[in-house]
Amino acid sequence: MYGKGRIIPALILFLGLMTTPMWYKSGDAGKMPKPEKPKDYTECVAPTAYMRTSHMVLLNEWRDDILREGGSRVGKTANGTEYVRSLQNGCMKCHNDKKKFCDACHNYTSVKPYCWDCHLQPKEAM
Amino acid sequence: MDSKRRDFLKIAGLTAIAGIAAPSAFNTLLKGEANASAQAVADKACPAVTGKRYGMVIDVKKFTENPGLADQCVSACHTIHNVPDFGNKKDEIKWIWVESYSHVFPENTQYKRPDVLKDMPILTLCNHCDNPPCVRACPTKATYKKKDGIVGMDYHRCIGCRFCMAACPYGARSFNWRDPRGKDANGQPFIKAENSKYPTRMRGVVEKCNFCTERLAIGQIPACVEVATQTKALVFGDMNDPDSEISQVLKTSFTIQRNPAIGTRPSLFYII
To answer: Across the A/B interface, how many CB contacts are shorter than 8 Å?
Structure first.
């Protein structure tokens, strides 16, 4: 092969540089997000594991049930505490700081939900 | 066999006609459609009463007697629902608004009407039709009819095609051409005072009156009706409940609906 003394080292160098981001941080998931939980409340509307993976499903279920089926606007937790089935008037009552709660994970996973295009976030946290 | 070509063709033709016609004739007779069709027409004109159907009576004279009341109703509704004021007619968003008699009832005669009708402020809003054309037109089911008769909207699903606006015969729907959360040239927000209990909308969706379904759910009456409580200019209630106030008013007063001939069966009634 003509000029292999230069081509092969150059190729190795090129591949090495291209894959830098992969091996530079290999084995490190980065700093895990720590969403700040509300201090005054210990219990959410559903178990933490479910809320972590499926809170958006729950919000859609509330919306369809209330808007279309005329479902109840008030729900009960496992321990019997009543809550409002609403993002703006329910969730944000306890999780009143969007930046410290919602955004912590959403930014980490690069998810950009459009909730706040219409819904208003709590004033004191803005 | 001594069958002629002519006879063979006759039999073949008759068999073909019988084969095509028999199944459809049997189907019609077996399902009883022939008998039931007359009943179906009657049912459509006067549907059976099931569940609730919210409606409103608007006593137009009371608004002339109480000048400014109509505007109070409008502003109460628009404040509660975060309806933006873009400051021009072209972009206007309206859930409830004031119109002239000739615009609210264009199909009625305008010939030799009393002068007083010309300047009368007539409050108008979504008719929450029993047979809503907007719901049929919506390709995403963003607008729908609920069991209580309210024609609702799910803004999450609205793609802003504006078919519903073209379908609505009453002009009750408005499109957000601009961002409702934005600010005008002087830096003033389009939503003067945000109600933190109710969401806003975003650019590119259609919006309209929801008969205060969020207030009804917690036992309150619609905002416009609340403002007009003292004057009884607006009466709201379940039209399917024979003892409700609105049923009594409808029974005792002569009321008219907006363009009833098109068969939308509106839930708004006007006492002129």
So the answer is: 35
